[in-house]
């Protein structure tokens, strides 16, 4: 039985939204999310199998479009938490802006850049909202938004599943369709949104297309191998660290043992010297008080030495 793929596989995601003739799907999704009227949409690169093949071994696969001939949008699907996504998305924003600023461009003409990140994990577990948009504000005046030329959107699908979303909202219909986990929500979404019902046929076509399916399988295989290699590296690092710790522990123990032995040896040598002095003084007839004062031995210790001499 063939495995079923959906839009959470980024190969299928880009193939679906980037195919020529599918602009209405992206337009409907972005209009619902951004709550703006989208008159025109231009996808930067139409997807092709050649493009997909270049990323089948783990390259970044995102989707870029221009809305209303002004706003530049980048959409990325990130299924797993790789630990560096926050830094990465800031880097991508700077790259997108730099591409817009060509020689002779007035900075005031640079279009707004929007980065939409659809996540298969919880990035902000402390909050219940599954859709979050950033706003750069002044520290002491949170009501004052500045630098609004760039904004990030974070959509956390696991939270969406738990939220009992209002399915009359178009964005929730799209998220149910993309997530494809709760079949009841998906069915409800497709009933309420005719575009989604049509989109289902397109997804079925893509997931049944042998060439696209092969790319999706390769991508999934790479992701799995990457996770396994990271886990192996983590375990190997822990094991190496344990071995180093044991070795260093032994070396430290030997060092401390030597130091303790030297210390004890010195102390033993000093004690033996005191005993020899006490023996000589006893033989000469010195009193115990005199010996105590000179050697700092106790009366009990001196009497023991005296007994051994006799």
Structure in words:
- With 310 residues, this protein is of the alpha/beta class.
- The protein has two domains: 199 residues, no CATH class; 73 residues, no CATH class.
- The protein is built from eleven helices and eight strands.
- A hairpin with a 2-residue loop joins strand 6 and strand 7.
- Helix 6 crosses helix 7, helix 7 packs across helix 8 and helix 9 packs across helix 11.
- The longest helix has 75 residues.
- The N and C termini lie far apart (101 Å).
Strand pairing plus helix content: what structural class? alpha/beta
Radius of gyration: 37 Å
> Main β-sheet, in a few words?
6 strands, mixed
Spatial strand sequence of the major β-sheet: 1-2-3-4-8-5
Helix and strand pattern: HHEHEEHEEEEEHHHHHHH
Instruction: Tell me the span between the first and last alpha carbons.
Output: 101 Å
Low-confidence stretches: 53-57
Q: Give me the count of strands.
A: 8
Integer average pLDDT: 83
Shape: elongated
Specify the helix fraction band: 55-70%
